[in-house]
Amino acid sequence: MGGSIQSSMTETTAPDLSSGGVGLSSVETKSRQRLDMEGMAEASEKAGLSGTGATDEGFRRVLQSAAASILAAETFRKPYPLILFRDFFPGDFYARLLQRFPEVDRFAGLNGDGTRREYALYDESSDPGSEEGRELWSIVRRVLASSEVADALREKLDEGFRIRSRRSGEGWPVPMHPRPVLYTDLNGYAIKPHPDTRRKVLTMQIYLPQDEAQRELGTAIYKVSPMGVFAWKSYGLVKDRTVPFLPNSGYAFVVIHPAYSLLRSSWHGREAINVPVERPRLSILNTYYRNPAPERTTGM
After folding, report:
1. pTM for the whole thing?
2. How far apart are CA 276 and CA 268, in angstroms?
3. Burial class of 99 by CB neighbour count within 10 A (0 to 12, 13 to 18, 19+)
4. How far is CA 168 from CA 14, 257, 286, in A?
5. Which are the contacts of 148, defined by CB distance < 8 A and separation ≥ 6?
């Protein structure tokens, strides 16, 4: 997995979830140009992020892009408050990030069947295996832990926070502490529908595929429905939509446990994926907890 794992990225436009599992669609032409990620990475590398000043400038640029992406995200109120964002990272930074993905031996096994592996992005001592990689992923860590990103999420998901706070007793504003983890999901990975534990305040996942070929591997959103009585394998829930797994995009929602709202609980999951060993499902899960020292994350 180390070194160059990405070679090209397809441009995407505003997300559309209005009709279920429909993804991001083009608003310009049917034949969209593919970006040469290696060329972009080389150009960016020549410009460089070396030196404290350049690193700080790179951080500010990525931070601005991330916050703007969240604030421009499409918002959905049902089955629970949810946002879908795109272009989270600047395009050239995204290209370099995937070119400098952590080496496979830097990941630790997470689940019993070995289909999910994690890289502790929140841990400053985590080493992706290259100098440039350390610089790039350090910027990602700082951005995801920033107050600017947290503030943007609070603004876009205000309704979700209010639903949660009515019953959670956590006060206002609801406290939250970020804990970003980089995941690689292998063939057969799956997780049953779940609303997330009450220890988690907000779930945010950033998809990192190389192109649109894995668009069907996104997160499934579930809802409570009278038809759920026939869906016993999904705990009486029915699938509302699937978030498309597209480059440099993602979603976020406030965790609403059934104890807080039965009808607007944040049920989500993922059916078993089918991927070749050389093309795992890559993503960042930035989970916010109500306490600064949460238990080990179990993922989405």
Report:
1. 0.80
2. 24
3. buried
4. 33, 9, 21
5. 63, 66, 67
CATH number reported for the structural domain that contains residue 140 in this entry? 2.60.120.620
Domain that holds residue 121: 34-289
Structure tokens at 138: 């350090």
The partner residues of 117 in beta bridges, in order of sequence, read 109, 184
Q: Is residue 245 part of a domain?
A: yes
Q: What is the pLDDT of residues 181-234, one digit of tens each?
A: 999 999 999 999 999 999 999 999 999 999 999 999 999 999 987 765 555 555
The pLDDT of residue 300: 57
CA of residue 218 relative to chain centroid, distance: 10
d(CA 68, CA 175) in angstroms, rounded, equals: 22
Burial (CB < 10 A; 0-12, 13-18, 19+), residue 169, is exposed
Q: Rounded distance, CA 247 to CA 76, Å?
A: 21
Per-residue pLDDT, 143: 98
pLDDT above 80 (res 154): yes
For 44, 109, 146, 270, 294, the CA distances from 178, given in Å and listed in that order, are 28, 21, 9, 23, 10
Q: So what's the pLDDT on residue 44? A: 41
29 lies in some domain: no
More confident residue, 139 or 32: 139
Adjacent-strand bridge partners of 118:
108, 183
Would you say residue 17 lies in a domain?
Answer: no
**H/E element, 84:** strand 82-85
* Alpha-carbon distance values, 62 to 20, 21, 23, 243 (Å): 31, 29, 24, 24
Q: How many CA atoms lie within 13 A of 20 on its CB side?
A: 5
At 119 the three-state DSSP class reads: strand
Domain tally, the chain: 1
